[in-house]
Amino acid sequence: LDAATAALNVLLAEAAVRTEEDAVRSAELFRDDARARRKAGVADRNDELRAEVLVAAAADRLVQAKRGVSEAEASLNYAVGRNPAAAVRVAGPAGLPPLTRPLAECLDAAVARRAEVAIARDLAAAAAEDRAVAAASFRPKVYAVGSTGVVGGQN
């Protein structure tokens, strides 16, 4: 589930980048129009400056969106047990190949490769053993003593 969520987050972040690229192009067109209106004498310097601010804000949001893609890719790599800095490409829903194995089997394979899941299982087993030892200390203790010999025999 973590890997699927991380993959969808990558796709969402990539969509945000495309949206912000469109916003930058739109802001640049608006700025160019403001410059042309100022040169024609129908707008003042404040209109042009406002357009410049819109371009700068859109460019800043684009940088943030690109950083979001990098963070989402690192999360995906971590979720599937890869180096977070490794390159990754997520195919969109139209480019997904058909599953050759059942989803449950794929998820089990992904969980089996995660180191933190193995550590959690080991810690749970150790805690269960500690509990069994603690419970045994409250049980009654039985001591048996034995000896061998002959009954009714002669010395």
Overall mean pLDDT stands at: 85
**Poorly predicted tracts of residues:** none
* Biggest sheet overview: none
| String of helices and strands | HHHH
Q: Which range best describes the helical content: under 10%, 10-25%, 25-40%, 40-55%, 55-70% or over 70%?
A: 55-70%
Beta-strand percentage range? under 5%
Counted by DSSP, the helix tally is: 4
Tally of DSSP β-strands: 0
Please identify the structural class as seen in this structure. Answer: mainly alpha
Distance between the termini: 81 Å
Please tell me what the overall shape is.
rod-shaped
- Radius of gyration of CA atoms, rounded to a whole number: 34 Å
Brief characterization of the structure:
The protein has 155 residues and is mostly helical. The protein is built from 4 helices and no strands. 9% of the residues are buried.
Write structural notes for this entry:
The protein has 155 residues and is an all-alpha fold. The protein has helices at 2-40, 45-79, 103-112, 115-136. α1 runs antiparallel to α2 (45-79). The protein is rod-shaped, with a radius of gyration of 34 Å.
Tags for this model:
155 residues, 0% strand, rod-shaped
Set down the secondary structure blueprint:
Layout: H1 2-40, H2 45-79, H3 103-112, H4 115-136
